[in-house]
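Forwarding these from the shared drive since the link keeps breaking.
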Amino acid sequence: MAWREAAALHPPRRYRGEIYWGKPLPAFGEPQARLVLVGLAPAAHGGNRTGRLFTGDASGDFLFRALHAEGLANHSDSKHAADGLVLSGALLTAACRCAPPANRPAPCEFARCRGYLERELDLIPGRRVLVAFGALAFGECIRALAPSGPSSPRPRFAHGVRVEMGGRTLYGSYHPSQQNTFTGRLTQGMLREVLRRARREAEKIAL
């Protein structure tokens, strides 16, 4: 929490003069959607600045380009909280709600935020489809879906992996960070394929 606020009070030169959100971030999208997209945490000068997850940074631009292509967003980019962006049939949330140092939440931060994710998943009883961006978010989804511990063996993260747990379906995707997108580890085609599979499965549940 202290680091999140410090980042907001001491922005880099390119954002000086802007008023940062600097608080925990809520989920964004349709609370009743059957498709839940789970990121890791707000970026210090992305969501922590703009007040919306995956907004105002390169990771968000990459993600929303794919969401728009798959019919899940009305715009292909996400610049600020008042840009008119709307999600259709999806809820975007995160495993950790505050921007962490080096974009890597500590175990205690995950533990403090886990209840929020669990309650969001309980907004609709029955089946939901999750897409976790990155191994850490994937692990937190497993903990939320199986609080008493998953059956052995524990599902292993991989891009495109699909597991069923706690009456829900969980897909894994590489995180749309610049570390992955600039190196080609994650391409638009790869991300869209996972989103497409998850969206189609969620649409069948909603029928």
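-- next protein --
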Amino acid sequence: MKPLKTGILGYAHYMRTNYVYHLRNCDAIEIVGVYNRSEERRKHAEEDGFFATSSPDEFFRIPGMEAVIIGTANASHKEFSIRAARQGLHIICEKPLALSAQDADEMVREVEKAGVVTHVNHGGPYTEAFQTFKRMAEDYASPYLHVHNRTSREFGLWSQGARHQNVAHPEASGGWTYHHMCHALDEVCILLGTARATRVYHVMQKSCDECPSEELVNALIHFDTGATALVSDGLSIGGFTDLAVQGLRGDVRLLNDEISVVIPGPADRTQRPGNLTPFIKKFPVPPGDKMIDTVSRKFCQAVRSGNRKELLSFRFVADQYRILAAMSESARTGKSVEPRYD
């Protein structure tokens, strides 16, 4: 497969040490240039062997460029996505896609008018852990009554001395609800497929009054299929992943690196009347996921073949921002909110 000639917008710590680090060894992507408005980060890109510029105009004139990866500040994703679409460039956009449902809708209109391939970089759904969990949930639990998704970034709270950039600058990041709750919500929406949220109740917390924005977010979401979801995300010092489904046929749970499957057995005559015996089996999840490599190859294949079904397109993710908007409104008003899909 011919590598996709790709430009990188943004060269901050995550893009340089994580994204670009993996892309250097990925045969599906060829990095043809870097944009960063910071002179220091532009020099980092040059030190790493790339053509780099602090001029967006110069970046978008790079010869032969076919696609871009947008890893700039959250508030600039809309501007660069629209500019790339209007030049016919395919787009991988770091999450969050946008900071409002209205901006996400505008981005969808522009990329679909241009006919470009798009993907929003939620890495979690492409891990071995999530893919294994999803298969087991479909096999042993579906249809679903409830989804539970609770994660912690293992960073620390403001009151403990931690200073996460996206908590410190909510005007640029959208706050923790938009910046990181979008991960947990995306996984829930993938598991529930075409289900639409009908009601959201959301609570935001921070560890002290001096903290600029929320650090812990918790939401209860009702869906039109009758399923509910309890979604929680935060910055506690103890990192963990806790994803579970309760279905009509059984329960499946992913806790850190282990998946538990629980299905009902025969009635247990030694217990209270009506009890069933649970059959429990546990499966280890292999470590060492290379999400960026996987996504990059799927993206390149989608561009070359036109088959986009394995990507998280702008359109698919945009509906999630109606839920995020409802979360923000619920936290502000203290009431449950119906997401607006009009």
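The chain has a mean pLDDT of 93. Residues 314-333 form the longest helix (20 residues).

- D.
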